[in-house]
């Protein structure tokens, strides 16, 4: 058990999850494996029972048949349904929240203004993990509806074993973090697929092409991570010599306006997020 909590009360707190899908499973796995919380502190409910049985067997967490039970028993409640399921799920539990509870919404595209239409009690937090959280290399952005040291300490204690936990102070920044880091993980995979395809077209097996792609992205990321204080542009210039092979490739990337394509992708994702916020399915 972690002995360096910012919130000393954490070890006696109950952490609830309403919804037992992919993200809940990833968060629970990370929290238990890193010992940031014990299995007996976690209580989970879900719309249908299948995932609960698996979670209980795998991690020893407690499960409940009804969402209301999780809300009634827990100090922190993570709302982990798909955004479109959120309003219906909240409707039946909104009245059970209490003033001191920390309520963490994972829903992409649902702003505080919408959440507070249904939830009037509790300390509301939006949290945006990305899938590398599964291996402890996530970026987890969070924002409290109202600045609150107790909430900040609790969220950091609960999730820092899953990656870098970053608090933001506006929903604009929260959305930018969601697009660049959560959706961004998907965008990076898209690039990796092009990389792998090209390598395979040049005679390598799928296995090797995948390995070469992954190691190239990983190596570049780790080099950047370990080169603190050195601009990424400088790292790039060290790979490239004037009129050389890399320079020719980079020139083509610029002529093809890859930056514009990436910016366009981010802006499209931002527009979709706004549409979801405005109630579009
Ligand atoms: N996956 C990601 O990479 C990611 C990243 C950041 C944030 N998020 C956010 O995390 C949330 C969950 O995503 P996910 O990928 O984990 O989705 P998911 O795998 O579809 O899981 C959602 C779970 O919610 C359950 N559920 C639906 N309605 C419910 C209700 N009324 N009461 C109790 N449980 C209910 C579903 O139950 P059934 O088993 O019956 O379907 C399902 O197990 C979303 O809001 C998403 O925006 C996800």
Q: How are the SSEs placed, and which strands pair?
A:
Layout: E1 15-18, H1 22-33, E2 42-45, H2 50-59, E3 62-63, H3 67-73, E4 76-79, H4 86-93, E5 102-105, H5 112-118, E6 123-128, E7 138-144, H6 149-159, E8 163-167, H7 171-201, H8 206-225, H9 232-239, H10 245-255, H11 258-277
Parallel strand pairs: 1-2, 1-4, 2-3, 4-5, 5-6, 7-8
Antiparallel strand pairs: 6-7
The structure holds NADP nicotinamide-adenine-dinucleotide phosphate.
The site of NADP nicotinamide-adenine-dinucleotide phosphate has 28 residues, from α1 and α4.
Structure description:
There is one protein chain. 52% of the residues lie in helices and 13% in strands. It is α/β, with parallel strands linked by helices and 281 residues long. It is built from eleven helices and eight strands. An eight-stranded mixed sheet has the order 3-2-1-4-5-6-7-8, with helices on both faces. The chain has two domains: 10-169, NAD(P)-binding Rossmann-like Domain (Rossmann fold); 178-277, ProC C-terminal domain-like (ProC C-terminal domain-like fold), CATH 1.10.3730. Helix 4 links the parallel strand 4 (76-79) and strand 5 (102-105). 29% of the residues are buried. The longest helix is centred in the middle third of the chain and has 31 residues, at 171-201. The protein is elongated. Bound molecules: NADP nicotinamide-adenine-dinucleotide phosphate. NADP nicotinamide-adenine-dinucleotide phosphate (NAP) is lined by residues 18-24, 45-48, 51, 67, 80-83, 85, 88-89, 106-108, 128-131, 182.
